[in-house]
Amino acid sequence: AITSDLLSFTRSAEAIRHNCQWMAGGVNSNFRLNISPTPLVIERGEGPFLYDVDGNRLIDYYLGMGPMILGHNPAALTQAVKRQIDDGILFGAQSAVEAEAARLVCQMVPSAERMRFGGSGSEVDQAALRLARAATGRRNIIKFEGHYHGWFDNVLWSTAPAPDAAGPREAPKAVAGSKGQLADTADTLVVLPWNDPELLEARLAQGDIAAVIMEAAMCNAGAVHPLPGYLEGVREACTRHGTILIFDEVITGFRLAPGGAQELFGVTPDLSTFGKAIANGFPVAAIAGRADLLDMFVSGGVVHGGTYNAQPIAMAATVATLQSLKPSLYEEIAVNGTRLMDGMREIFARHGVKAVVEGFPQVFHVAFGLEQPARDYRDLARMNRQAYVAFTTALLHRGVRALERGAWFMSIAHDDAVVASTLEAVEGAVKQIRAD
Ligand code: PMP
């Protein structure tokens, strides 16, 4: 029962239909498809807002799928980028700006003795797995159900398996994410449920695991905390069994704290990967960690390449972003993020909507139908997805854009007033879905 003062998205829908003649599906990532009521076409972003082709102003909690921790178009970043453009675009050589960006990463990330830049999270995750295999001489990798490490064949397994397709929790089947994916890449993969130290210990004890790769807090499917002591236990077990521990901090890095999840939880991985918030929307990623491992790119015969690695304009954006990420920024986001999470809990409770709002003030999820916080992907998969999509769709028609699948991302631009407007929209959306 959508009333006439709600926002409409007909021009976006028309443009997407029209653009299908050139771009497959009218989009450039499968994760931008199948959005209700339509994938959007955006004209401009500023602070917490996006402005679309229908003339709508939307409060944005996608934030480019996570990167924009400073909000859209922060002045410090756009000015740095404009200055860098005057000096050139790509050199196929080193530059002072990339060295400064690298210095900042090593200063901010606790485990970063050494690092390299890359172009996307998917790529640097591949670099991490290659280093781990080269360093250990082993081939097998442990990954966890619901954790996403990019779209390449060897890791796009069990990222969002239908629970009935995945077999028993204690011994999940590797479920392919895509047609055309080489099936035998699963032969080197062991899929386990996350947050279960006993199952991990038992598998590591077989002595054939090159690396454990995980999101230190599972922020891709939702925003799930590691159980107390879990990360410490994984760290200790990996050390004992000669396995490399990789934290995929593509979402958590520079978002949960200046030094990411590893700083927040005080646990040091051997390698970690970054992307998204590292450059507030520019295509930058990084792999960082133990110097002896990263130096295998120099003297260990391990190859890492990329035409656009450390592209100077993206590096200027990285420096400007990292310089802005002071501890006080996280405290400010925490105040507004907590207010939003608490406000949503209060609205759900008042309207008798069973939902869990969980995660971190900088990134959290809303799970309809759950009674208590999820511990792993299977818990989260029990949420009422249909009701949640009805909710995010109702929100969009009230000017608030939140991911249908995944987490809400906060930025420093989401202030008091923005949170208050969001909560008004939440109230309206809840009333609508209760009425429908
Ligand atoms: N790891 C995690 C945890 C991610 O969330 C993502 C992207 N959503 C990636 C890796 C892949 O990054 P990219 O999309 O930049 O390739």
UniProtKB/TrEMBL annotation:
Keyword Isomerase tagged: yes
Gene3D superfamilies in the record: Aspartate Aminotransferase, domain 1, Type I PLP-dependent aspartate aminotransferase-like (Major domain)
A Pfam family of this chain: Aminotran_3
The protein's required cofactors: pyridoxal 5'-phosphate
N-terminal signal peptide: none
InterPro entries referenced in this protein's UniProt entry, alphabetically: Aminotrans_3, Aminotrans_3_PPA_site, PyrdxlP-dep_Trfase, PyrdxlP-dep_Trfase_major, PyrdxlP-dep_Trfase_small
Keywords assigned by UniProt, alphabetized: Isomerase, Pyridoxal phosphate
Enzyme class: isomerase
Gene Ontology MF terms: glutamate-1-semialdehyde 2,1-aminomutase activity; pyridoxal phosphate binding; transaminase activity
Entry EC number(s): 5.4.3.8
PANTHER family per UniProt: GLUTAMATE-1-SEMIALDEHYDE 2,1-AMINOMUTASE, GLUTAMATE-1-SEMIALDEHYDE 2,1-AMINOMUTASE 1, CHLOROPLASTIC-RELATED
Protein family: Belongs to the class-III pyridoxal-phosphate-dependent aminotransferase family.
Protein's name according to its UniProt entry: Glutamate-1-semialdehyde 2,1-aminomutase
Source species of the chain: Aquamicrobium lusatiense
